[in-house]
Design a protein that fits this description.
α2 crosses α4 (about 175-195). About 25% of the residues lie in helices and about 30% in strands. The strands form three sheets. The chain has a seven-stranded mixed β-sheet, sandwiched between helices. A five-stranded antiparallel β-sheet has the order 13-12-11-10-14. The protein has two domains: about 5-205, Bira Bifunctional Protein, Domain 2 (BirA Bifunctional Protein, domain 2, 2-Layer Sandwich); about 215-250, SH3 type barrels. The chain has helices at about 15-25, 80-95, 150-155, 175-195, 195-205, and strands at about 5-15, 35-40, 45, 50, 55-65, 100-105, 110, 115-125, 135-140, 215, 220-230, 235-240, 245, 250. By secondary structure, it is an alpha+beta fold.
Length: about 260
């Protein structure tokens, strides 16, 4: 596999991010670390929501040392945008014409109105490490996931590469797609390090929420407005009619 220095592949795990976290805390330091599973039984999404997957889903986690990639702490919140671009470029590199492929801020890759993939960035504190933390990027992608067997609320909002016209796809498709994502992830991290203006323009160009009326759960309150952009720092900019709010967190509610 490109990019990764340590690779762990398992037929089934509870959570690739959970296993990656354990390995980092146990002292694995040949990074980047890739943990890849054919099937994940307890995958997590944003705000600890469960993530449905089967053996038709590509599920993996990459752990990196941010200092090794020249990343500053203020750049880390953009990691989900960077990973989303890597997934999108990898799909397009395969020659699959997936309609409406783009980013649904903050953590999803969507196409044709359906959720195609999710990204979960996490920070791990490492006692005695230098720097004192590592970053995890968990990615789940519906490749030929059997969404007809998924819970009703998942099947209603999800899509897979197979149902959107890519293919034919089977288990032999996974390694090549994973390798392409890892290759692009390495490139996108380099662009992030350099604060490349074209990278920020690209994640805004891929913004599926642009000009959409949205409701965003901010915990103690819900913000309603119109999305104007995803700015160069990865913030979602929402105009509520009186001011433009720059959001670095929150959940965009689905109708």
């Amino acid at each position: 596999m490109p990019f990764a220095r340590t690779v762990l592949h398992r037929p089934e795990v509870d959570s690739t991010s959970g296993l990656a976290r354990s390995l980092i805390l146990q002292g694995v330091d040949e990074l980047p670390l890739l943990v890849w599973a054919d099937r994940q039984t307890l995958g997590r999404g944003q705000r600890d929501r469960s993530w449905y997957s089967d053996d038709g889903s590509l599920t993996f986690t990459v752990a990196i040392d941010p200092a090794a990639h020249g990343l500053r702490v203020d750049q880390e919140p953009r990691l989900s945008m960077v990973a989303a671009l890597a997934v999108i470029h990898a799909i397009e590199d395969r020659g699959w014409a997936i309609p409406g492929l783009g980013i649904r801020w903050p953590n999803d890759v969507e196409a044709s109105g359906g959720k195609l993939g999710g990204i979960l960035p996490e920070r791990i504190e490492v006692p005695g490490g230098s720097p004192s933390h590592r970053l995890l990027v968990g990615i789940g992608l519906n490749v030929f996931t059997r969404l007809d067997r998924a819970p009703m609320d998942v099947g209603r909002m999800a899509a897979s590469l197979a149902t959107l016209g890519a293919g034919p796809l089977d288990g032999s498709s996974m390694p090549g797609l994973l390798a392409a994502i890892l290759t692009h992830l390495g490139r996108e991290l380099g662009r992030l390090k350099d604060d490349a203006p074209d990278q920020a323009r690209e994640w805004d160009d891929r913004n599926l929420l642009r000009d959409q009326a949205v409701r965003i759960d901010l915990g103690p309150r819900t913000l309603t407005g119109r999305v104007t952009s995803i700015d160069p720092l990865g913030a979602l900019c929402v105009d509520d009619g009186s001011e433009v709010h720059r959001l670095f967190g929150g959940r965009v509610l689905r109708s």
